[in-house]
Design brief:
By secondary structure, this protein is mainly α. The protein contains three helices and two strands; from the N terminus they run E-E-H-H-H. A hairpin with a 7-residue loop joins strand 1 and strand 2. The longest helix has 19 residues.
């Protein structure tokens, strides 16, 4: 995690090797808006979680996941099925 405070340098915290976190689809859904998904640095998270999620790889992955979820929604398919498809495609 790269946390910026009042000082000139960030405070870096590293995860253990092979450790990971998941971002729930709900973090990409802005409150009060239907048919909108936000990704990358716009996702809803605590400051600590956002500090680790705002890096380019995660931004790209959440953007891709938002696109997959939007396509499933446009087809009238349940979002739970979209999440399973996203997980399956991420691990392939």
């Amino acid at each position: 995690m790269e946390r910026w405070g009042a000082g000139p340098q960030p405070v870096m915290t590293f995860f253990a090797e092979r450790d990971y976190f998941e971002i729930p689809l709900g973090c990409l859904c802005p409150m009060g808006l239907n048919n909108v998904l936000a990704a990358g640095r716009c996702l809803s998270a605590t400051p600590g979680a956002l500090a680790s999620a705002r890096v380019i790889g995660t931004c790209l992955a959440t953007g891709w996941a938002a696109g997959v979820a939007a396509a499933w929604q446009a087809d009238g398919k349940p979002s739970a099925d979209a999440v399973e498809a996203i997980r399956s495609q991420m691990t392939d």
